[in-house]
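Same chain as my last thread, 136 residues:
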Amino acid sequence: MMTIDLTLILSIAAGVFAAGAILLSVAALRSSRLWQARCADLEASLAAVRREMELVASISMRTGRRMKRIENEYSGVADRVDQAELRRPTQSIDQAIDSARRGGDPLKLTQHFGLSRGEADLVMRLHGRRGSAHAV
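reply #2:
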C-alpha cells in the first residue's frame, strides 16, 4: 500500500509542478509581450525625437546663417560708435561746418572731426563753398 500512496503523492506533485510551470510560462509570455510593446513604443518615440532633433538642427543652422548675415551687415556700426565716442567735445559738428565753410574737403572732415564719408559729403553739400545750398 505504500507504493500506491507514494505513486499518488508523486502524481499529485507532478501535476502541481506542471500546473506551476504552465502558469509561469503564461506569465513569462505575457511579460514578454508587454516588453515587446514597450520596446515598440520606445522605438517610435525615439524616431519622433530624432525627427525633432533634425528640425532643431535645421532651425539652428538657419539661425546661425542669419546671425552671420546680420553681423556682416552691421559690423560697421560698432566702428562708427567707437569713432563717435572718440570725438572730443571741441571737435563738434559745428567745427566741421566751419571748416567746410572755409573750404575744407571731405577727407579733412572725416580725419579731423570723425565724420563718416557720408556725413562729410553732406556737410560739404550744405555748408561748403562749392555747394549750391549754403546754410547761414
